[in-house]
Write a structure and sequence with these properties.
By secondary structure, the protein is α+β, with helices and mostly antiparallel strands. The chain is 37% helix and 12% strand. It has helices at residues 40-64, 74-78; strands at 2-3, 6-8, 14-16, 22-23. The strands form two sheets. A two-stranded antiparallel ribbon has the order 1-4. It has a two-stranded antiparallel sheet with strand order 2-3. The two termini are 43 Å apart.
Length: 81
């Protein structure tokens, strides 16, 4: 299924919004509970996002640590490769 959305701008013109066309896909194995905000699909998504964010925060914290780095060496501080 392809979804096109147009927006009426301040010049009274209909223009496509960023990202269109949107493409939706469906699977026969999905249950009706997967459409609920409390369903298993949402639970799985939230757990994956929490793991991703936890990893990102840990990596960011390591990158921000300036201990044992030469503060005069910009490339070392910014990890320029």
């Amino acid at each position: 299924m392809t979804i096109n959305i147009k927006f009426l701008n301040d010049k009274e013109e209909f223009v496509a919004i960023r990202g269109v066309p949107f493409k939706a896909t469906f699977v026969n194995s999905a249950t009706s509970k997967d459409n609920l905000l409390t369903g298993s699909a949402m639970d799985k998504h939230i757990k994956q996002e929490l793991e991703r964010l936890t990893s990102l925060m840990g990596d960011s914290k390591k990158e921000l640590n300036v201990k044992d780095k030469d503060l005069k060496d910009v490339k070392a501080l910014l990890k320029v490769k």
